[in-house]
Amino acid sequence: MNTLENKILWGVINGLITTIIISFLYEKGRHFKKLTIRKFNETKACFLERNFPKPDVKYTGKNYITLPKISLTQDQQTWFDTVYQAFLRGEQIPAHVLKKDLVKSEGISEAFDYKNIDHRLIKLKNPSIGTSEDNVITLFGIYNADLKTHIPEQLDVIIRYIKQLINYNPHITSVSAKTLQRKLGISERDISTAIILGRDCKGMHYLTGGGNKDPSHYLGLVVSINLDSDIYFKFYDAYENIQKSLEAAYQAI
């Protein structure tokens, strides 16, 4: 190989090495920037929450609501129990998949129509009314599966504390899930579950995703509660207790 060919070869190699190094540094820089912004926001949130009042109510781990139990047929109960157990595992099973599984494993009828299950218990995909969720259990459904569930009380404590923060500072525009976790002593997973399931109480608006993910559960993790609208303020201002809110949400009086 002559000198010219050597120079060309080394030029190509150097170019490739330089490109690889630049790409590596660029990706590292992006990651560092995201990490820095996240740490800054967390530090800022911690600084601001120092001035937040202590919660007037505390989470006790007790259930103090009474809602109706919905009667189901045997096949409906099998379906419902399976969806609930999947929820506990953090899984969401599409309706068409579950139908095939239960016909084969549990012997439910081929003619079984899961769409006839009370929609207050399980949400099914229905494009005509804008419902995109597929076979997702509701908070009312969870209560029907487990009368001792702590989720309603957790949601009640969260809403009451946000209402307290609004009264303390009417200019507040959001509350982070991390702040709620630190102030209320409820795990981030439980806070997210309660808030997301509480979406049926019209007026709660939250942000999920970003760098705040939980691969162990299909519900994901809540990043923050938005309070930048009169609509949201009115919800918290009018809030009395979780019993009344759930009765109104599910028309389960």
CATH topology of the largest domain: Arc Repressor Mutant, subunit A
Evaluate the radius of gyration. Answer: 25 Å
What is the string of SSEs from the N terminus onward? HHHEEHHEHHEEHH
Per DSSP E runs of 2 or more residues, the count of β-strands stands at 5
Low-confidence stretches: 37-47, 127-131
CATH architecture title of the largest domain: Orthogonal Bundle
CATH class of the largest domain equals Mainly Alpha
The share of residues in helices is 40-55%
The strand line-up of the biggest sheet is: 3-5-4
Helical run tally: 9
Number of domains: 3
**What is the residue-averaged pLDDT?**
83
Strand % is 5-15%
Largest sheet: 3 strands, antiparallel
Content-based structural category: mainly alpha
General form: flat
Distance between the termini: 89 Å
